[in-house]
Automatic annotation (TrEMBL):
SUPFAM superfamilies: Heme oxygenase-like. InterPro entries: Haem_Oase-like, Haem_Oase-like_multi-hlx. This is Heme oxygenase. It comes from Pedobacter paludis. The lineage of its organism: Bacteria, Pseudomonadati, Bacteroidota, Sphingobacteriia, Sphingobacteriales. One of its GO terms (molecular function) is heme oxygenase (decyclizing) activity. Pfam families: Heme_oxygenase (PF01126). GO terms for biological process: heme oxidation.
Amino acid sequence: MIANILRAETAEKHKELESLMFVNEIMNNSLSTEAYKKLLTINYIIHQKLENKLANMLDADLAEKLQMNDRLKLSSLEKDLQYWGIDNLTLPALNFELFVPEKNVAAVLGALYVLEGATLGGNVIKKHILANPNFQGAEDGLNYYGVYGEELGSKWKTFVSILNESVPEADYEACVNSANETFDNLIKLSKQLG
């Protein structure tokens, strides 16, 4: 099953990204609002550059099966930027070449695996951020991390199930490479904005 292979083969990149994305500060409720703004900016830039491209690369049947329209997170990120006073027109340009997968189901799903997986911890992250004194009363600025609300678990299960049935073994490598390259986009941007 490709989902298990992806988890194993991207574990190193996932760990590196977590170390750059303030996971410890989130979990021990000490995240600063400046660090949170950086997280939002990273997620916004990557979603702004990839989300629609990836959605448009899927054929109509697969996009419908995935309910892609309900998975787009850019508007939630835009609300958060607005709440925190971040002007999305003045964000820095990338100082690296963004990886965009070729139009191939396995590669596109590999990239989406990373973007979807990023929301998996969203409810836990949101709970920790709200428990942090720096964020008292700031629930309106946490749209991205609560994007799926109660549907989080079911949306992830659906994604994994479609991923597993849509990627043939011959395309496992393309899927894994795309996921790792997408993690690299996030890692490089985290370092650039660091």
